[in-house]
Amino acid sequence: MTYRTFGTDWQRQLPKDTAEIVTQALAFAERAHGAQTRPAGEPYVEHLREAVAVLVDGVGRTEPDLLVAAVLHDVVEDTPVTLAEVRAEFGDAPAELVYWVTRDPAQEKSAYLKRFAAAPDDAVLVKLADRLSNVQRLHTHPRPAKRAAYFAETVEFILPLAARHPWFADWFAQWRTAMEARLAQADSFGEAAAAYAKARPSYPNEAVRWLIPPKAGLVLDLGAGTGQLTRAVLAAGFDVVAVEPSAGMRAELRRAHPNVPIHAGTAERIPLPDNAVDAVVVGQAWHWVDVAVAVPEIARILRPGGQLGLVWNIRDERHDWVAELGRIMHRGIEQDMGSENPRVGAPFTPIERRDFEWTYHLSRADLLDLVASRSYVITMEPQQREQVLAEVTELLHTHPDLKGRDTLELPYRTRCSRTVTDLSVDRPEPASPRCAR
């Protein structure tokens, strides 16, 4: 079972005056959201364009007030823009819809979603378009716990709302069937942990030493996976405790590092006491955390003046064969992932950035394992996954930089960001964990 996905091409389907108004709203939203990105790293405005496309191209609704509200649905909740500013710029009707879809920071997620039962119909349409944009690629999310939680939330709260609108009811029914199959398939991610551990690169020593203060005692590897970053932190001479949500990954991590304390947990719920560690490092995962919840939680377990280090290994696609590999894998995700400007905020100081260039030496079989271990490859339909691996094999046999070579040189840029807790700022209370909208 498949379901229709939506892009951002809808302008030609609107009357000229409506398209102009929506374009003005998009410019307003783009200024407000600034450098914010979606989980896969694309500009936040792309999500807003998709929400409009759902209403225009899917539902067939073209009223300016409704489309403007779809564009502005997150500006009050996620930016400094106020409802009064929305009203002054675009009028009462869009502002009223934005009010309905805006969640108060103090409001529990379940209470926020339940109130849509009494919301105006157009507010429900905006929320459904918002959620459809978010879930149409949910199966690519690399964290099984996040995928499952967001799926369950959508089924519990959003599908009853979708039932009020035949088009949305049909779309979400198809999506649910496909997603249930993909979730079952994704349960096998733990089975891929051995390939993940074998093929994924570690991190250069100089990058690790830049991320962690030299006098740090205990370091938390948060979202440790199978332990690539754990191994690098240990090699740099630090003591490590690891937190990882996936049971399969934890098992592989425990086999590799039996003396490292390992806990089940997430960035939003860290099973450590207050002031427990001197530094926290997060490898390849910050773009998936709920920053509003994770930041105060990390501040809680850090000792005063503790340091947070974020790191991504990014394939260097300035090299021809590496760019071709990225094309085959159908993903630009590693080239972005929010690593350029990761969002942290109070109570941490402004972020420092540094890149480290290096080369990962691996075998031809390792490269295939590296591709196969990507979560978005694991969750592909079997035929699509086989096609990807076949194309990578063909690349190995035909590209002049790879043909006939037993050992490959895969160039990487390790992108690092670091920040410390600001002792002049009071630590915020941890928020209630919530899924991405």
TrEMBL record:
GO terms assigned for molecular function: S-adenosylmethionine-dependent methyltransferase activity
All copies of the HD/PDEase domain together span 40-144
Instruction: Determine the domain of life of the protein's source.
Output: Bacteria
One example of a Gene Ontology biological process annotation: methylation
InterPro entries attached to this UniProt entry: Diverse_substrate_MTase (IPR051052), HD/PDEase_dom (IPR003607), Methyltransf_11 (IPR013216), SAM-dependent_MTases_sf (IPR029063)
Q: Which UniProt keywords apply?
A: Methyltransferase, Transferase
Stated family: Belongs to the methyltransferase superfamily.
What's this protein's name? Methyltransferase domain-containing protein
Organism of derivation: Nocardia arthritidis
